[in-house]
Each structure stands twice: as C-alpha cells, then as structure tokens.
Design a protein that fits this description.
98% helix; 1 helix; mainly alpha
Length: 124
Amino acid sequence: DGGRSIHELDKQRRRLEVEKEELQAALEEAEGALEQEENKVLRIQLELTQVRQEIERRLAEKDEEFNSTKKNFNKAIEGMQSTLESETKAKVEAIRMKKKLETDVADLETALEHANAANMDSQK
C-alpha cells in the first residue's frame, strides 16, 4: 500500500509539474500579449501626440493667416476712410469756391451794367 501511495504521489507530482508548465507557458503567452498591447498603446499615444501637434501647427497657421488678413483689411479701411475724408474736404472747398466765384461773377455783372449805364449816359 505504501508503494502504491508513493506511485500515486509521484503521478500527482508529474501531473502538477505538467500543469505548472502549462500555466507557465500560458503566463508567458499572456505576458507576450500584454507587451504587444502595451506597444500598441505606446504607438497610438505617439500618433495621437503627432496628430495633436499637427492640429496645433495648423491652427497656429490659420490664426496667423487670419490676423494678417484682418490687418490688411484694417489698413484698407483706414485708407478708404482717409480718401473719403480728403474727398469730402475737397468737395466742401469746391462748393465754397463755386459760391465765391458765383458772387464774383454777379458783382462783375453788376459793375458791367453800371459801367454800361455810365457809358450810355456819357454818350448822350
């Protein structure tokens, strides 16, 4: 009975060793799979960082482009306002000169009428 018990124990020991080796192989396989997944995560994190940097770069370019366009439009508006002010001043001055010339013409016509009347009187 003692020999049989040793034989059973020996059998049980071999079965446990096989089970241990299977579990060790499964553990190693799981560790390999885990390492692959961790590498995937690292690659994805790197890609995500690169995409974020690209997006930030593009946004910075668009901001710069927008600011440049805004600056150019502001300069154009200032130029138009300046031109409008100059043209308005020139128009006001032209109207003033026209009125002065009309007054001068009216005065000259009156003086001519008086001179012609005086001339007519002197010829009588």
